[in-house]
Amino acid sequence: MKPIIIANWKMNPQSSKEANKLFEDIEKEIKDIKKAEIVICPPFVFLPSFTNIKKGAQDVFLEKGGAFTGEVSPLMLKDLGCEYVIVGHSERRKYFGETDEIINKKIKAALENNLTPIFCVGETKKEKEENRTEEVLKREIKGGLKGLGSFEVTLAYEPIWAIGTGNACEVKTAAKMRGIIKDILEESFGKGVSKTPILYGGSVNSKNAAGYIKEAGFQGLLVGGASLDAKEFGKIVESVV
Ligand code: PEP
Q1: Chain-centre distance of CA 193, in angstroms?
Q2: Which tens digits make up the pLDDT trace of 178-205?
Q3: What is the pLDDT of residues 78-131, one digit of tens each?
Q4: Is residue 178 within 8 Å of 138, Cβ to Cβ?
């Protein structure tokens, strides 16, 4: 299986001119790379501009349409050519009050509309210090995937203390967490889900990226800050193929 490298641009850049330039620069960096599944997740407003690289959204609403001011439906994302959508990112949980229940509904909405959810889970620094990581992951995974029989979900382990801090999770610890997540998935949903790709995210850069794939056994990466630098992003992808 090809490693899946997801670029999460978050709420950047601030103009379509800059977004187009970044997209073109990334395209140049990765044009010869065939051995990775590369997905760019820009803000919604830039989605229509990009055609040559696989794309995903950073969020989705749980209804197909109707009186939901400000929201974007899975049908709209599909229509714009999205194949993926990030669901349950810690910034959405923290700033927009997304609960496991809401995330579960969003995952279902994405799947019903043939979008692959990139389902994010991870513990805060406090939860880690209180040795509650496993309990948190269990709650988030079981809650987010509740009621789903078979599913095509890509899971991303994103320890919140590692996101945007430059304090990436040690490869050895990340490998252990991957094992724990796999066990939770199998215990909750059966052996069939062992094929569910598990990605790592949290201060990934071109120096640490390969370790998560080649040593810790993750099937891909979710890259935030470093995906805004085309050269750095290109190096990350090159280091894992
Ligand atoms: C993210 O936004 O999911 C992320 C992992 O960010 P960063 O790479 O900047 O830590």
Answers
A1: 18
A2: 999 999 999 888 877 767 999 999 999 9
A3: 999 999 999 999 999 999 999 999 999 999 999 999 999 999 999 999 999 999
A4: no
Closest CA to 118 of 149, 147, 83: 83
Amino acid at 116: T
To the question of pTM greater than 0.90 for the whole model, the response is: yes
Catalytic choice (123, 127, 140, 158): 158
236 found inside a domain = no
Q: Among 29, 89, 91, 127, which one carries the catalytic annotation? A: 89
User: In which domain, by residue range, is 178 found?
Assistant: 4-230
Q: Is residue 37 part of a domain?
A: yes
Is 215 a known active-site residue?
no
At 31, list the tokens. 């044009």
In-domain check, residue 237: no
State how many domains the chain has: 1
Nearest CA to ligand 1 atom 8: 224
